Amino acid sequence: MKTVLALLSLMLVALLLRSTALSVLAARGLPLDVLAFVTVVWALSRGEAWGTSFGFILGLMADLDAGHWLGRHALILALLGYALGRISHSLVRDSVRTQVVLLFIATLVHEAWVLSFELSGAASWPWLIGRVLLAATVTAPAGTLVLLVARWGSGQPLFGHAQLQSG
Amino acid sequence: MGGLLPPAERRSSVLVGAYAALSLLLLITGERLPQAALRGVGAWIFGPFDRVVLAVDRASAAWRENQRLHQRVAELELENVRLRDEGVENQRLRQQLELQTRRGVSLKPVEVLALSGEAVPSAATLGAGRDQGVHEGDVVITHEGLVGRIGESYPSLSRVVLLTDPNAAVACEVESVGVMGIVRYVTTPYPRIVLTGVALGDSVRVGQRVLTSGLSRRYPRSLPVGRIVRLGVDPSGLSQDIEVEPLARLSHLRHAFVIPAPDSLRERP
Fold first, then answer.
1. Cα–Cα distance between B12 and A51 in angstroms, integer?
2. How far, in Å, CA of A114 to CA of B156, rounded?
3. Which residue of A52, A87, A134, A166 is the best one to mutate when testing the B interface, meaning the one whose CB has the most B CBs within 10 A?
């Protein structure tokens, strides 16, 4: 029950931020991908099953909000939630470097997939590549900073350690 | 790789497969589903939260804006006196030339709660709906220019299809030269608003304003829409490629005005 409440709260905050403050920042050339960020956070902390479900539900809500291409966010966020949840067992999840890399890759994949639906023709590729790289470059450090502040505020590691396996 | 990762949980493998299949199904068939009702529920849930989130931002902005608006009101009052005088004169001249008198528009102030869409906002949620007299088809503007029109209306909220929606199209003309065209949003070679259907021979210049032409009965004539920022030739070679920058700052919408559509154009359920 606690997990479900936390999941719903995180989704609510992410979707609210996305439709208010972050949409203004994005229009000013600072695209912060909050959907990829919270999916990374959730998948790292809860593993692949929860990561997949979180990504799918969050993506579906974002799709409904956008009004076009239902399933676009849902598919990629579910896959990202699964992939990140899978590898989270083998990573030092509280490492800043790990978080930066994961956020960069997740944002890159999410933005590239989502924006590819908006474009038509090869002439649009330079714009898409620029926009995707910008989003990943901005989201990765900003997201890591948020996690650092959260860790500093809580006074303990956010995700715990990787599972060590013999052999 | 198998040595690096622990074996996948069976439950998660089934889940990701099911979600991926469902997402693909929605991508293929989603446009046929009644999404308006679902979005209505979403807007109903998020509406109050959006209001709270925006309250703080708006309180500080209102303080700054108040000062600026005082000055603006004084300037506009002076200008209004002059325009009234010229308006009377214009009406008299139109009567003498037997031209149709333009209809006045009534403005209904509304609050913008949220923006949605990538990479630029293509829709906005307004804090007023059917109960406040906002209906599908009504025109939405700011003091700067045209924003879009109401696409969906719920009891206390409504959704605006912005000029940056791929399905939006507005019949327009270039100010003072009367060159006609259709303003629409295109994504090639990059997302932008263009005035389409302008013949190569028509002379337009960068910096000229684009206004609604009144050819569409939905939009009143002479609403400012945008300003021409770039001229080129369409890839087809048959018409001009005219890029237009919207006058209304679509990413900074906080307040807007709704112009009710004429009764004859009301979209009935």
1. 9
2. 31
3. A52
What are the structural domains, with CATH classification, of chain B? 37-164+251-260 (2.40.10.340), 169-246 (2.40.10.350)
Chain B residue numbers touching A126 (CB-CB < 8 A)? 189-190
> Cβ contact (<8 Å) for A74 and B22?
yes
pTM (whole model) above 0.80: no
Is the CB of B50 less than 8 angstroms away from the CB of A19?
yes
β-sheet bridge partners, residue B116 = B123
Which residue in chain B has the smallest CA separation from A80?
B16
Of B135, B90, B109, the closest CA to residue B260 belongs to B135
Residue B190: φ, ψ to 5°: -150, 160
- The residue with tokens 């978080």 is A99
Q: Which residues pair with B186 in a beta bridge?
A: B192
Tokens of A30: 């600072």
Closest C-alpha among B159, B148, B179, B154 to residue B247: B148
Q: Tell me if B30 and A71 make a contact (CB, 8 A cut-off).
A: yes
Contact yes or no for A93/A102 (Cβ under 8 A): no
The whole-angstrom separation of Cα A35 and Cα A113 is 13
pLDDT in single tens digits along all 167 residues of chain A? 778 888 888 888 888 888 777 877 777 778 889 999 999 999 998 888 889 999 999 998 888 877 678 888 999 999 999 999 988 888 777 888 999 999 999 999 999 998 888 776 777 788 888 889 999 999 999 999 999 998 888 887 777 655 544 43
Of A102, A78, A165, the closest CA to residue B2 belongs to A165
- Shortest Cα distance from A153 to chain B (angstroms)? 22
